[in-house]
Structures are given as C-alpha cells and as structure tokens.
Specification:
heterodimer; A: mainly alpha; MetI-like fold; 2 domains; two-stranded antiparallel sheet; 11 helices; 2 strands; B: alpha/beta; six-stranded mixed beta sheet; globular; disordered C terminus
Chain lengths: ~280, ~280
C-alpha cells in the first residue's frame, strides 16, 4: 500500500505516498543481493577451471595469428567466387523454400485465421520443431541423409527458416486490426477472400520485412554450413583453417564480410520499399 | 423489410447484451438507434448480419429467416446488407477503388477477386458511386492517404456497391468533426432516399439522430425503452434511455418549435447553434 495515512481518520492532508511498500522494497533488495552473489560465484567457478597460463599469453597469440593472417592471399580470392556464389544461392533458395512452407503454416497457426484448433497445434508443432534446431545441426542431419553438397545446405536453411518466418508472421497476423476483417466478412466474402482482402494487405509489410531479414541471417548462416559438408564457402574456410593457411582464412573473412554488408544494404532498401 | 423477434444475446462471459428486442423496419425507413455506451447497439446490428451470433430470437430480411441459414446461404444474404463502420474499416494499403470493389466480393469467385478482375459494369458502377460521394479525384489514391470524412465516403461507396436493401451503420460519425459528421449523415440519408434503402444507424449524437432519422429507437442495458418519432424524444425519454441529467438545456429548442427546429438559428447552446448552420 503505497498510500499511507498517518492518522486513523483517513485524512489526505496527513497522508504519505511512496512507490513501493517497505516489504516490496526489501524483496527487491534481496533479489539484487542474490543475483549479484550468484554472478560472483559463477565467476569464481569459471576462473578456477581456466588455465590462466594460456590466457596470459593471449595478447601475443592474438598478435601472432593476425601477423600470419596479414597480408591476405589476394590471389586465392579467384578460387573462391564459385564457393561464394554457392553460398548466396544456398541462402536465397533456402529462404524462398522456407517462405513457401512458412506462409501457410503461419495462417494455420494464427488464432484469428486458423480453421481448426487441431490444425493450429499441428502448425505450432512444425514451427517449434523447426526453430529448436540450429541450421548447422539441420545441415549435419541432412548431409547424413542426402549426402554432402549444396542441396543439403538449401534444405537445412529452408527447414530452419520455417520456424523463424512462421512464428513472426503468425504473430503479425494475430495483431491485425479486426474491423477490416469484419467489414470484408459483412460484404458476403468467402473465408479465402477475407484472407486475401482483409488480412494479407495488413501483414504484407511485416511479411516482406521478416522474409528479407531471414534472408539476411541466412547469408551469414550459410557461410558456415560448409564446415559440415553442406556446400558453400564454409568448405574452403574449414580446409584453410585445418591446413593453417591463415592468409587464406583472412581473405575468406573479408569476402564474407563484404557479402554480409551488401545483403544488409539490400534488406534495408527492400524493407523501406514495403511500408 | 427487416423484422426482429425477441432477439437475445448473451456473451460467453455471461454479459447479457440484448434482451428480447423486437422491432420492424419497413423498406426505405431510416432508423436511428441511440443509447448509452454498452447498451447493446453494436451487438444489435451485428446480430442482424450475424457477425455476432444471436443467442436466441429470429431475424427476417424480407421473407428470409437469417437466423437459420447455413454459412453459404448467410454469405449470399449478407450481400443484401451493407455495413458502414465507425473507424471506416477500410483496408489502408489498398487503393480507394480496390476498397470500393471489395463490396462486390460476395458476388465473385476467389481468383477473379484475387487478380482484381472485376466485370466492366461493376467497375462502371463503382465509378458512378465514387462520383456520387464526391471522390472521383481520389480513385487511385491509397485509402490511408485520405481524411476521415473521405474515408467514410469510401466506406459508404463500398457498402452501396453490394446493391443492398438495408444499411447497417455503426457509429458513422463518432470519429468525425461536427461539420463532417453532418455531411456524412446527410449523404447517408440522401442515398437511402435515392435508392429506397432502409437503414439502422447506431449513433451517440442525439441531435444528429433527430435531424436525419425518420424514427428513433432507444436501447438501455440491452432492452428496448423507446421507439417513436424524433419529435417524441423529450427530456423524460432521454432520462429513460440515458439516465438522470439536465436534458432541457439541449432539448429546449426542439420542444419550443419541433416543426422548424431544422432551420432555426437559436444559439443558446452549442447544439442549437450547430443546427443553425443546417442543410
């Protein structure tokens, strides 16, 4: 009770007001004490398990690594264009495939558009299982099933994207204004017509933004898929690291960095165009 | 035209929104439905086209009993009932023309409407309607680029493209300024006369209701407490509908001269001042 009367006659001119009661104040203080203690305890455990000898020469090691990375092996870039192209294709085709599967899923999962609660739980199950597995793990599974190569990469990206796009899109669908839906329903339109006239235009900007954002993420994720044999520039990265060719590693980093910057630029442009 | 028998609506929460409301609206009559917030006005008109399913009671549109139709039949009958909303309920990102054409959705298939392939005579009809409501210069504008009054005109054109027999109008002026409110109400009234449409208009503004409606229906807590001519609505009746309040200050001018109240310029309060700037 933040409001406190000093006298019994509930006289407001004698009253005090504080944001929290004393009890709440104490609980908050204890909460902070507990949180800070836990943090310090964890710090201690991690510190005990760290071999500080290795950490102590970290600056020299870091400097050494950078000196071996520099100058980058510029000529090696010519062998990378194909792998880079594969990476971009994996990301783009994977995203497109993911969108195609996520779109109907989102409409089945959104409370206000789902035809039946059972279908809704089914769609939610798809979305959750897709989200709970990282694309690198999807790729590992797929490489075992369909063999190494770009196809495994594309499918890994697609499977991971379903959950991301599906979840964000169905949340956007649940947040639309209900009155246009009412208005279109009142004209005698069918369910599908209500979707296409009242729901779709309202979620279109969100849908475009989400998809392009996922494509942006997928470009970054597909650069590592090669580590498990699912195609793309990660394959070369893995080989370069294993053979300690650090000047090649650095040129790969530079290329990945440039690609991500470009994709960031494109996604910003597209998002602006769709509002 | 429209007859409602013993309409009752209980929401799942247990709130009783309507209790045994019965009334008849003959063809071509404009009826204003007034009452305090939460009296069940919106529920009432939504029970007619079954956007809200009534708990019990019957609704007839002409010879058809709306309350026993299946979904497919209901969709066909909804075409005969145009609906106009408080917040216009337009699709913001679509153009004015697409919004108006959506009034034709009940008559056309999914793919034709998806690709916006509407028959030429429907497109022509939409042009005529847009011209009638004064929006011929805005046909290709996006709906969210329009002002409130213009948006409501789009809503009206959309409802009329359905070729309805009755208009269900939910607070058409609640988001508009006083002058635009009167223009919109006048437009609805004129269109009802031109096309011999019946209309039920939910409205908060008692003066506007008296000015533009042929008949006033008062709801209080889901029950019908007044049904009569606009002139019959005096301070006692307003007290019955809305509860105790000093109604005379605003109703006085009507009581003095009910016949000429529409053109009189008596400005002892804001409402009669507004009436002075009439038609």
């Amino acid at each position: 009770m933040p409001l406190r009367f000093l006298s019994d006659d509930k006289d407001l001119s004698q009253a005090q007001w504080k944001l929290r009661t004393t009890r709440e104040q104490w609980l908050i203080w204890l909460g902070w004490l507990f949180g800070v203690s836990l943090f310090l305890l964890c710090w201690k455990v991690i510190s005990d398990n760290t071999m500080w000898v290795f950490v102590q020469d970290a600056p020299q090691q870091g400097a050494d690594l950078i000196s071996r990375m520099w100058p980058p092996d510029w000529a090696y870039a010519n062998l990378l264009w194909k792998a880079l192209w594969d990476t971009i294709n994996i990301a783009t085709l994977g995203t497109v495939l993911g969108i195609m599967m996520a779109f109907p899923c989102a409409f089945l999962a959104a409370r206000n558009t789902t035809p039946h609660p059972i279908l809704r739980s089914f769609a939610l199950l798809i979305i959750v299982s897709s989200r709970s597995i990282n694309s690198l793990i999807w790729a590992m599974l797929l490489v075992t099933i369909i063999g190494p190569g770009i196809l495994a990469g594309i499918l890994a990206i697609a499977l991971r994207s379903i959950g991301f796009i599906g979840k964000l899109l169905y949340e956007a669908i649940e947040e639309i204004h209900p009155t246009p839906v009412e208005a279109i329903t009142a004209t005698g339109a069918s369910r599908m017509q209500v979707m296409s006239y009242a729901v779709l235009p309202q979620v279109m900007p969100a849908f475009a933004g989400i998809s392009i954002y996922r494509w942006d993420i997928n470009i970054r994720e597909s650069t590592v898929l090669g580590l498990v044999g699912a195609g793309g520039i990660g394959l070369q990265l893995n080989a370069a690291i294993n053979s300690l060719a650090w000047d090649r590693v650095s040129i790969i980093f530079i290329l990945i960095f440039a690609t991500v910057v470009v994709s960031e630029y494109i996604s910003a442009k597209v998002r602006k165009a769709f509002i | 035209m429209l007859s409602v028998h013993q309409l009752t609506k209980c929401y799942a929460t247990g709130d009783k929104a309507l209790t045994n409301v019965s009334l008849e609206i003959p063809a071509g009559q404009v009826a204003a439905l007034i009452g305090p917030s939460g009296a069940g006005k919106s529920t009432f008109i939504r029970c007619i086209n079954r956007l809200v399913e009534p708990t019990s009671g019957k609704v007839f549109l002409g010879e058809t009993e709306l309350t026993k139709l299946n979904q497919r039949q209901l969709r066909r009958e909804r075409r005969r009932m145009g609906m106009i909303f408080q917040e216009y309920a337009l699709i913001d990102r679509l153009t004015v023309m697409e919004n108006v054409l959506s009034g034709y959705l009940g008559y056309t298939g999914f793919w034709r409407s998806y690709f916006r392939r509407y028959p030429q005579d429907v497109v022509k009809k939409a042009f005529v309607l847009l011209e009638r409501v004064g929006l011929e210069k805005f046909i290709d504008k996006r709906a969210d680029a329009l002002s409130g009054g213009q948006r409501q005109r789009v809503g009206i054109a959309r409802a009329l493209l359905q070729s309805p027999d009755i208009l269900l109008v939910d607070e058409p002026t609640a988001s508009l300024d006083p002058k635009t409110s009167r223009q919109i109400m006048r437009l609805i009234k004129e269109l009802c006369i031109e096309r011999k449409l019946a209309a039920i208009i939910n409205i908060h503004d008692v003066q506007l209701a008296q000015l533009f409606a042929d008949r006033i229906i008062g709801l209080r807590a889901g029950e019908l407490v007044f049904d009569g001519l606009p002139d019959g609505l005096d301070a006692d009746m307003l007290t019955r509908i809305y509860g105790e309040e000093d109604w005379n200050r605003s109703v006085q001018s009507d009581e003095e001269s009910p016949e000429s109240s529409k053109t009189k310029s008596n400005s002892h309060d804001i409402h009669s001042a507004l009436k002075g700037t009439n038609v």
